[in-house]
Amino acid sequence: MVKRRSGRPPKWTPAKRKELNDAFIDYLYETDLDGHYVHSPPNVSEFAFLHHISRQRLYEFPEVRETIELCKTKKEWDLETGGLSEKLNPAMAIFSLKNLGWSDNPAINDYYNKLAENNRLMYDIKFGDYGGGDASVS
After folding, report:
1. Residues sharing a CB contact under 8 Å with residue 14, sequence separation 6 or more, in sequence order
2. What is the maximal distance between C-alpha atoms in the chain?
3. pLDDT of residue 100
4. In angstroms, how far is CA 93 from the centroid of its own chain?
5. What single string gives the DSSP state of each residue in 77-101?
6. Sequence ranges of the domains in the chain
7. At 37, is the secondary structure helix, strand, or coil?
8. Residue 117: what pLDDT?
9. What is the pLDDT averaged over residues 44-59?
């Protein structure tokens, strides 16, 4: 005897999830008549809203995970190039990139500053220029 599942059948069957993934890929690459991306930078929340699904539910589908990562990568690219070219407000681009995990870590800047200072000292020691004065010995 086969036990039947009771209740409503699942709304998001594997075939429907594949269709959703295909629609997500189309969303990422959709362009206008001039060849510009329509959704730039792309947004997982916007896609979820347009397709009547919660963002959290979208993250649960294994078929869509790779496309979500692709969306994040494209968003980073759009924010970085848009912020540098001033098509986007640079402060807003920085804020959005920080939300994606980017950081302007001062510890790294301190490391490179100390490294440069050490290189200057090594150069001064090697060539006898201590503090920019005359290196000749009388």
Report:
1. 63
2. 107
3. 85
4. 11
5. HHHHHHHHTTSS-HHHHHHHHHHTT
6. 14-101, 104-132
7. strand
8. 80
9. 93
Structure tokens at 109: 């800047």
34: left (phi over 0), alpha (psi -120 to 50) or beta: alpha
Q: Are 44 and 71 a contacting pair, CB within 8 Å? A: yes
Residue type, 57: R
**Phi, psi at 24, each rounded to 5°:** -65, -40
pTM metric for this prediction: 0.64
Which residue matches tokens 């807003």? 92
Smallest CA-to-CA distance from 79 within 71, 70, 88 is with: 88
Residue identified by tokens 């295909």 is 22
Q: Which residue has the tokens 């409503």?
A: 8
